[in-house]
Hints:
Helices cover 41% and strands 23% of the residues. It is of the alpha/beta class. The chain has three domains: 3-73, Arc Repressor Mutant, subunit A, CATH 1.10.10; 82-156 and 262-290, Periplasmic binding protein-like II (D-Maltodextrin-Binding Protein, domain 2, 3-Layer(aba) Sandwich), CATH 3.40.190.10; 160-260, D-Maltodextrin-Binding Protein, domain 2 (3-Layer(aba) Sandwich). Strands 3, 4, 5, 6, 7, 10, 11 and 12 form an eight-stranded mixed β-sheet that branches. Strands 1-2 form a two-stranded antiparallel ribbon. Strand 8 (187-190), helix 7 and strand 9 (213-217) form a beta-alpha-beta unit. Helix 1 crosses helix 3. The longest helix has 27 residues, at 59-85. It is elongated and about 75 Å long. Pfam families: HTH_1, LysR_substrate. One of its GO terms (molecular function) is DNA binding. InterPro entries: HTH-type_LysR_regulators, LysR_HTH_N, LysR_subst-bd, WH-like_DNA-bd_sf, WH_DNA-bd_sf. Keywords: DNA-binding, Transcription, Transcription regulation.
Amino acid sequence: MNYYALKYFKAVAEIGNMTSAAEELKVSQPAISRAIKQLEEDLGVDLFVRQGRSIHLNHYGETFLTYLDYSFSALSEGKRVVREISGLENGEITIGVTLPHVFPNLLSNFLRDYPHVRIKQYEAASGLMLEKLLRDQLDFWIATHEINHDQVETLPIISEEIFVTVSRQHPLAQAKQVALSDLKGEKFVGSSQGYSFRELTDGFCQQAGFTPDYQIELEDAAAIHKLVEAGYGISFTPKISLLSSQEKIIPLRIADYSIQRTISLVYKKDHYFSQAAKAFFDFSKDYLRDFA
Length: 292
């Protein structure tokens, strides 16, 4: 089975047009047509439904593409391992992060000790992050909720406290702490539904007898801080996020509940780790524990 035929098939499947795929790959359209025809003959089935100039995968094609994606990921990982073993690279680390506000500090401190290591960072929803991890497209995932999967290991690093944050002008700004039940009737600013942090804090509020009234929902922690600072509502904020608030919002301890979340390093059990990745693993554990 020809490598280039597989590459052409993947491009046509993703683009949905042979002419556009040929332009993207800088090859002739007849070359792509011949390669895909040969691939279909090798497999004994058609992989596409052809309708005029448009082309899309049928059931066989969708199934084949799924396994091809895994194969290409494994091939890419193999190239990386060989290059590192042969001394062609000083080390590369790919990391999934759900703490974008603390990652630059972690990264700058790590690179101070390992200045020649290359870092690739990804931010995505949890489902996509787990998929990348399972396909060996990530070395590590710094996760903020429990991950249950038989192919991954989860190493809890710290449990961090969750605060209520308010603007300097808010009536609660002079308080040192607040009862969760006293927040009923307040306007909230926070992350969208479906995020693990939102599910955690909503659950505690419901235990306290109310459902938070979210006036604004968004996914950017820095934007949430800005909106709280401007007085559009109050928010739940984990301890690490307060590092970037620059004292422009006021954190209040929650008096009647102990709300915490756990930060973990997550990795695939059989993943190959470079020396650089091993160094980052040890460094991250020590760095994150400083915030405990």
